[in-house]
Amino acid sequence: MDTLKVSRATRLSTMAMVMLALIVVVMAAAPWWAGRADLRLFGEIFLYMSLATLWNLLAGYAGLVSVGQQAYVGLGGYVFFAATMLWGMSPFIAFPVAMVLGAAISAPIAFLIFRLRGAYFAIGTWVVAEVFRLSFAQVSALGGGSGTSLTTAIVKDLASGRDGREALAYWFALGLVVVVVGAVFFFLRSRQGVALTAIRDNELAASSLGIDVWRTKFLVYVVTAGLTTLTGALIFLQKLRISPDAAFSTNDWTAFVIFIVVIGGIGTIEGPIIGTLVFFALRETLADFGTIYLIALGFVAILIMLKTPNGLWGLVRGRRGIELFPLSQRVRGLSEKGT
Amino acid sequence: MAILELSGVKKAFGSIIVADDQSWSLAEGEALGVLGPNGAGKTSMFNLATGTLPVDGGTIHYDGKDITSWSAARRCRAGISRSFQVPQPFGGMTVYENAYVAATHGAGLSSRKAEATSLDVLERTGLVKKANVLAGGLTLLDRKRLELARAMCARPRVLLLDEIAGGLTENECHALIDTIKALRNTGISIVWIEHVVHALLAVVDRLIVIDFGKKIAEGNPKTVMESNEVREIYLGIEADA
């Protein structure tokens, strides 16, 4: 009995974490070794990785299959533009303001859409996003239906030169993905995270074992909304221009994100990260072929869903539950007992 | 004093009545057996008692409190835990983690205490060797063991067991009986639905028989087994107690 110990780290996960730390350090130095176009691409990858990680927490763990997360991406962009241009806030303050506002707005929305189940919930989230899009198209101070650009004064407020500004936008994106993946990782290791993982696997059993399913899902929805709003703010800082159609695009902020999570492996922390890398690898190699690119994406998605429904990571993870991020608890010392 | 008491509980799905004005109580420290043919409403009765199903009418009291409107989670945290007849494992989590969830959330234990409780219960239910296996990959028998283990990890005062002996070998069945007797000796009150009658009779103090959502017999196990109601349901099956 006393020989049994419980721990999370495995040799593989320790190695993976060291590798990951090295990668983050190398990527943090990217403004010194990468060209301008590469920097933009890396930044975009990190922003998609954040969106995918958040959507995975929502759909893959909490079972809240939202097709309306573009509501928060767009909200983040618009709040960032409004805060800096209309309310005269510093961009550095506008980010936390966007995040808190996104979380605050999501709470009453959660009360509304949590009454819906399954497919109805998905449609509900999409309707909310459309309401957001149509509402922001009415705000003439932000360009109405045709949108607006970030004024040069605000851009200059961030950093003086163009190189400095692009490096800063890149670091924000890298910082965001580290914070988002880190937050999800530590959340999943907490008591609430264990409860969420149980909900992922079986809601009936979870509620019968003392887990407050509604409250846990609510918490996940609100936190995810806040962080998605922050991501939206950073996306539109990189773009420097916003319009209702771009901000609340179902294709860009939901369809691609779902593709990423599904091919990577839903319900695992590694899945969205791997999915993002696969998505961008496909995009960068196929984008020149025009429409073929989207057909190829669809083909890959169908192939993976048929051949390995748990995504590429599900294939690696297998029945033994291999993982790079030390999440699951393992009992050590079983063999010493001669059992 | 009764620790769990159902009074006039009613539940129907359309025209199918699963609980028809059902009343029974469980005394503190008592082991109550439940018999009845398939589809009689035994599992539904557990669903009503644990809060998985809302009642249409009647009240449920636990430890002197009216818990009729409590959620399943709250009832579990208060001390009512159950096993499912059709196992409901957390398939993507290991056996140990399944137990740990119950110990942290059901029993409200700190991480360290939950760890010790989970390991102890896995050892007692014969699952410790499989602690690191994903629960989704377990055999049916082990899934049933896990049902019992999880329910125990929630540190219940009332334990509702739903057909956990089916499919066990003679030795395993004896081990299960010993486990349940030991639980009882720690003061846990038990309600046990079981078709393996000899296992049931080895443990319980009292029997109730349910058919068509109605309680049709109740009392001393020996008397109930010899009653006409039971003979009618289990045609030709003799009580072997």
Mass-distribution shape of chain A: globular
Helix content of chain B: 25-40%
N-to-C SSE string of chain A, H for helix and E for strand: EHHHHHHEHHHHHEHHHHHE
Q: Give the CA-based shape of chain B.
A: globular
Portion in strands of chain A: under 5%
Would you identify the regions of chain A where 5 or more consecutive residues have pLDDT less than 50?
none
How would you summarize what this structure contains?
Chain A has 339 residues and is an all-alpha fold. Helices cover 73% and strands 3% of the residues of chain A.
Defining key terms:
heterodimer, A: 339 residues, mainly alpha, ABC transporter involved in vitamin B12 uptake, BtuC, two-stranded antiparallel ribbon, 16 helices, 73% helix, 3% strand, B: 241 residues, alpha/beta, Rossmann fold, 2 domains, 9 helices
What does this entry look like structurally?
The complex is a heterodimer of chains A (339) and B (241). Chain A has 16 helices and 4 strands. Chain A has a single domain (5-334), classed as ABC transporter involved in vitamin B12 uptake, BtuC, CATH 1.10.3470. The mean pLDDT of chain A is 91. Chain A is mainly alpha-helical and 339 residues long. Chain A has helices spanning 11-28, 30-33, 36-61, 70-86, 91-113, 118-136, 152-158, 162-189, 191-201, 203-208, 213-239, 244-247, 250-264, 270-286, 291-307, 311-317; strands at 5-7, 148-149, 241-242, 330-332. The two termini of chain A are 12 Å apart. In chain A, the strands form 2 sheets. A two-stranded antiparallel ribbon of chain A has the order 1-4. In chain A, strands 2-3 form a two-stranded antiparallel sheet. By secondary structure, chain B is α/β, with parallel strands linked by helices. Chain B has 2 domains: 1-79 and 156-241, Rossmann fold; 86-155, no CATH class. Helices cover 38% and strands 26% of the residues of chain B. Chain B has 9 helices and 10 strands. Chain B has helices spanning 42-50, 72-78, 95-106, 111-124, 140-153, 170-185, 197-203, 221-226, 228-233; strands at 2-13, 16-27, 31-35, 57-62, 65-66, 80-82, 158-162, 189-193, 206-211, 214-219. A 6-stranded mixed sheet of chain B has the order 6-7-8-3-9-10, with helices on both faces. In chain B, strands 2-1-4-5 form a 4-stranded antiparallel sheet, covered by helices on one side. The mean pLDDT of chain B is 90. The chains are: A mainly alpha (339), B alpha/beta (241). Chain A binds chain B through residues 1, 4, 6, 191, 194-195, 197-198, 200-202, 204-213, 267, 319-321, 328-331, 334, 339, and chain B through 50, 52, 71-74, 76-77, 81-82, 84, 88-94, 96-97, 100-102, 104-108, 111, 115, 119-120, 123, 128-129, 131-132, 134, 136-137, 150, 154.
